[in-house]
Design goal:
heterodimer; A: about 110 residues; mainly beta; six-stranded mixed β-sheet; B: about 110 residues; seven-stranded mixed β-sheet; four-stranded antiparallel β-sheet; 11 strands; about 0% helix
């Protein structure tokens, strides 16, 4: 079993839709939860960072962490064509420099 | 541009050749990370440095791989006797503050081993 599971998609939605992206994990030692966005032929870019259960909002993006269920989500409101990219969840802990990334979900927002 | 810089962007080599990649982190960042990413997968951790000290290495980093960060500034990743399975995007990231907090990635070096 992989440490982090993420549905690779692809996910296609119309412009303006609410998008829900999810990851599940198995190791309860993870303390940091992140979402990165990666455009084609570019490096990942940090979108959201949190270390506690609950919701964190930043503009159109909301990150949700449920440690009891080992489940994290990223919601994108009013999705735009410019949101078309691969979204990667990443998890870390304080005793290692290693982040564990999900496989990534490819999102396409159609105008 | 004050982001993470990687050179070259693309490298094509023949099996058995040695290759070296360079990463210039954001200047005030004391931590530097190397990751490898293959098509359709998320990045996989290779190694990280705090200043000039290499503090952690993945078992993915076989004896053919070596990374250095002299004087805690730029870093190099060398692959000796390349194999076709080494074909991947090699990503460098840097950070400051707490471990694993807010990594800034470069655009990567795409390696193709023929």
């Amino acid at each position: 079993q992989k440490e982090v599971e993420q549905d690779p998609g692809p996910l296609s939605v119309p412009e303006g839709a609410i998008v829900s992206l999810n990851c599940t994990y198995s190791n309860s030692a993870f303390q940091y939860f992140m979402w990165y966005r990666q455009y084609s032929r570019k490096g990942p870019e940090l979108l959201m960072y949190t270390y506690s259960s609950g919701n964190k909002e930043d503009g159109r993006f909301t990150a949700q962490v449920d440690k009891s269920s080992k489940y994290i989500s990223l919601f994108i409101r009013d999705s735009q064509p410019s949101d078309s990219a691969t979204y990667l969840c990443a998890l870390g802990s304080s005793n290692t420099g290693k982040l564990i990334f999900g496989q990534g979900t490819t999102l396409q927002v159609k105008p | 541009d004050t982001g993470v810089s990687q050179d070259p962007r693309h490298k094509i080599t023949k099996r058995g050749q040695n290759v070296t990649f360079r990463c210039d982190p954001i200047s005030e960042h004391n931590r530097l990370y190397w990751y490898r990413q293959t098509l359709g997968q998320g990045p996989e951790f290779l190694t990280y440095f705090q200043n000039e000290a290499q503090l952690e290495k993945s078992r993915l980093l076989s004896d053919r791989f070596s990374a250095e960060r002299p004087k805690g500034s730029f870093s190099t990743l060398e692959i000796q006797r390349t194999e076709q399975g080494d074909s991947a995007m090699y990503l460098c990231a840097s950070s400051s503050g707490q471990l694993n907090e807010k990594l800034f990635f470069g655009s990567g070096t795409q390696l193709s081993v023929l």
